[in-house]
């Protein structure tokens, strides 16, 4: 018949342990606060566990669970206004990267918090997670055209944020790119 329940549980546990840091980083960028991100990832993991047989058969189980996470976030943002992002983003490896100590990251996160939820999702998935338009569309549950529109509008708004413009000008004057 099927495989033993213990094997499925161990497989699910190994999967969650492997993808948790990446999911947490994405959730943090979407939700804006550590506690909200942890709650969002836990909720996505619960849903994935409930339908693990379906998730594990997917071409890309991580993408499947990321889609659950994005959907969970979308449901929550419809119910309440978005929260402001804080200064530090957890790194996928659990260690602080070079950008975590910079003013640039803080300014970018503050600017990201000003975007409407769908634009923030598109920008985070396209540019932070480095997904293609079609992968982002799948994760957001919309068309490729909608992803391009949301991402373009979000990037345009980010380019107008004075703190980011000042940082860009300072890095170009200082010689760094």
From TrEMBL:
Return the InterPro entries for the record: RNA_pol_sigma-70-like (IPR039425), RNA_pol_sigma-70_dom (IPR014284), RNA_pol_sigma-E_actinobac (IPR014325), RNA_pol_sigma70_r2 (IPR007627), RNA_pol_sigma70_r4_t2 (IPR013249), RNA_pol_sigma_r2 (IPR013325), RNA_pol_sigma_r3/r4-like (IPR013324), WH-like_DNA-bd_sf (IPR036388)
An annotated GO BP: DNA-templated transcription initiation
Answer whether the UniProt record assigns the keyword Transcription to this protein.
Answer: yes
UniProt record similarity statement: Belongs to the sigma-70 factor family. ECF subfamily.
Q: What sequence ranges are listed for the domain RNA polymerase sigma-70 region?
A: 21-80
Tell me what organism the protein belongs to: Streptomyces rubellomurinus (strain ATCC 31215)
Please list the residue ranges annotated as the RNA polymerase sigma factor 70 region 4 type domain: 106-158
State what protein this is by name.
RNA polymerase sigma24 factor
Its ancestry begins with: Bacteria, Bacillati, Actinomycetota, Actinomycetes, Kitasatosporales
Q: Which domain of life is it from?
A: Bacteria
Q: Which UniProt keywords apply?
A: DNA-binding, Sigma factor, Transcription, Transcription regulation
Which terms in the Gene Ontology molecular function aspect does this entry carry? DNA binding; sigma factor activity
């Amino acid at each position: 018949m099927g495989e033993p329940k213990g094997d499925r549980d161990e497989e699910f546990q190994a999967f969650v342990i492997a993808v948790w840091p990446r999911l947490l980083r994405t959730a943090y960028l979407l939700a804006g606060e550590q506690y909200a991100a942890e709650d969002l990832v836990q909720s996505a993991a619960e849903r994935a566990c409930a339908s693990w047989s379906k998730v594990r058969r997917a071409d890309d189980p991580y993408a499947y669970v990321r889609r659950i996470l994005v959907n969970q976030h979308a449901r929550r943002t419809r119910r309440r206004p978005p929260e402001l992002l804080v200064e530090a983003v957890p790194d996928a490896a659990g260690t602080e990267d070079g950008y975590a100590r910079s003013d640039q990251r803080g300014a970018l996160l503050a600017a990201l918090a000003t975007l409407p939820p769908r634009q923030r999702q598109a920008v985070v998935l396209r540019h932070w997670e480095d997904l293609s338009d079609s992968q982002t569309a799948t994760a957001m549950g919309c068309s490729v055209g909608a992803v391009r529109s949301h991402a373009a509008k979000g990037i345009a708004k980010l380019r107008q944020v004075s703190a980011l413009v000042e940082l860009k000008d300072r890095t170009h004057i200082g010689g760094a790119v």
